[in-house]
Amino acid sequence: MTAPASPKAADGPKAADSGGGLDRGVIAVAMVVVLGAIMSILDVTVVNVALKHLTEDFNAPLSTIQWVATGYTLALATVIPVTGWASARFGTKRLYIISIILFVAGSALAGMAWSAESLIAFRVLQGLGGGMIMPAGMTILTQAAGPQRVGQVMSIVGIPMLLGPIMGPILGGWLVDDVSWRWIFYINVPIGAVALFLAFKILKKDKPRKAERLDVLGLLLLSPGLAMLIYGLATGAEKNDFTRPDVLVTAIGGGLLVIGFAVHALREGNTNPLIDLRLFKRRSVAAASGTMVLFACAFFGAMLILPLYYQTVRGESAFAAGLLLAPQGLGAMVTMPIGGKLTDKLGPGKVVLVGLALVVLGVAGFASQLTPDASYWTLGMALFVMGLGMGMTMMPTMSAAMQTLQHDEVPRASTALNIIQQVAGSIGTAFIAVLLATQLRAEGLDTSGGLGAEPSAGGAEVPPHIMAEIMSKMADAFQTTYWSSLVLLVLAFLPALMLPRRRPDTLPVDVPMQMH
């Protein structure tokens, strides 16, 4: 490597060889990485509390506005496999700076959006940058600290990961209520500017190195294929008509592209596919992937619509809805730090089964208790239990896939599972939102102009007993939707039962399953 850009950073490599505390140079690098992490992590959670206002301002149905969240997570999934190649090709400092520029540009444009479609497009741009911030930042920080102090620096980066689910909805709610929903995007601009300045000043200059060949064909097949497939199926479900020409063209076209990617990835001469599908012959990877798909679909979809319940059925402000979501983040904060230790001590399969059971209990509370006058204490406890379960499910599931693989297979499996998690989250948010919109229509409620439109009777105020009946129907629609999430979570137990339930040091290296 070339000489560092600042004297303080120059001490990093020497200090990295020891197992002592973190020197000032590493702490400075950690500060740069944490600033980027705060932006990207908060942005995942800050938008949900604004969905009601977005449906009103753009006069758009929930099934359209949910693509503000779905498009972002799909963009995250798109750039995950590109990050490793780009890091080697351009250098980690350049990649980190480019990713922040993309993210900030997307944020500024999203704040200026003039329609639902323009907002969705700018959120995709945001996601392309946001998906590279964390991997590039973690690589920079790991290289600065050295292998002996990875645990210490990861604990620093873990702070925004723990606080994001708590602070994101609260910050977003305050901005939506007291400033404008546009500021949930504009707020990234000054933070990004500071992060860019510090990145230029503190991060060491790096040299690009020879990178593995990027699977461009795989990227061109998989990314649009997934987007078209999800859009087509979601539109068909929304319209309750899968024979519409636009549904058939997008769903079938997307399906063919995804199949084309599978054929391309499994081709004998393809040594570096975008996603190594051959890894799914490993029982641990297949079981972890199945668990992750079902869990992510149910969990992220359930969390998307909960702020809407608080705002539409209970009449709470966006800020109050954000505060009411905090118990989930608090629950995750309790179990995420100990989930890894329990996995090492007991085996990942046992930890994941307990985590899933807790999430099922929490979602069952919503499916049974989400009435127009449900106790906030009861709902808060259900959210806290969900958070406890989430902290014992996501990372242990990832660990279960890794622990029985050979050393050179771990990076490829990690990339595949991260993509699966983001894609499953995209599918979950799309279908749960569409399912809720469908249930609302089944209850005789028109949401084509947004969820926040107040019912009226020729301009007159709606009588209280009629308003109570409307709120009851809306609550029923939310409850029915949560029962669907509960079914997905129960199904997740099937692949979870196949996860390794022994300690990592007692597990043999997994071998490919025989395919007949």
Compressed to H and E, one letter per element, the order equals HHHHHHHHHHHHHHHHHHHHHH
Mean pLDDT: 80
Q: Tell me about the biggest sheet?
A: none
* Class per helix and strand makeup: mainly alpha
Strand content: under 5%
What is the alpha-carbon Rg in Å? 23 Å
Which regions contain 5 or more consecutive residues with pLDDT less than 50?
Answer: 1-19, 452-459
Number of strands: 0
Q: Helical stretch count?
A: 22
Based on Cα principal axes, name the global outline: globular
Cα distance spanning the termini: 49 Å
Question: What do you see in this structure?
Answer:
The chain has 516 residues and is mostly helical. The chain is 74% helix and 0% strand. It is built from 22 helices and no strands. The termini are far apart. The relative contact order is 0.13. The model is unreliable at 1-19 and 452-459 (pLDDT under 50).
Reconstruct the topology from this structure:
Layout: H1 7-10, H2 12-16, H3 24-46, H4 51-57, H5 62-65, H6 67-90, H7 92-111, H8 116-145, H9 150-178, H10 183-186, H11 188-202, H12 216-239, H13 245-266, H14 283-313, H15 318-324, H16 326-346, H17 348-369, H18 376-391, H19 394-402, H20 410-442, H21 464-491, H22 493-496
Helix pairs in contact: 3-8, 3-9, 3-11, 6-7, 6-8, 6-12, 6-20, 7-8, 7-11, 8-9, 9-15, 9-16, 12-13, 12-20, 14-15, 14-19, 14-20, 14-21, 16-17, 16-18, 16-19, 17-18, 17-19, 17-21, 20-21
